[in-house]
Amino acid sequence: MASVTGKRHSTTTAVALICACAATVLAAPGTAFASPAEPTPPGPTTRPDAPTPPTNRSLEEVRKKIERLYREAGTATDAYNAAEEKAEKQSEEIVRLARSIDKGQAKLDKLKARAGAAARAQYRGGGVPDEARLLLSDNPSRFLDGAGRLRQGQHATKAMLTEMGRTQEDLKTYAKDAAAQWKRLEAGRKAKAEAKKEIKKKIAAAEKLESRLEKKERERLRKLEEEAALRQQSAWVDTGILKDAKGEATTPGKKAIAFATAQLGKPYVWGAEGPKSFDCSGLTSQAWAAAGKGIPRTSQEQWKRLPRVDVKNMRPGDLIIYHKDASHVGLYVGDGAIVHAPRPGRNVTVAGAGSMEILGVVRPDK
Question: N- or C-end of the chain: fewer Cβ atoms within 10 A?
Answer without folding.
Answer: C
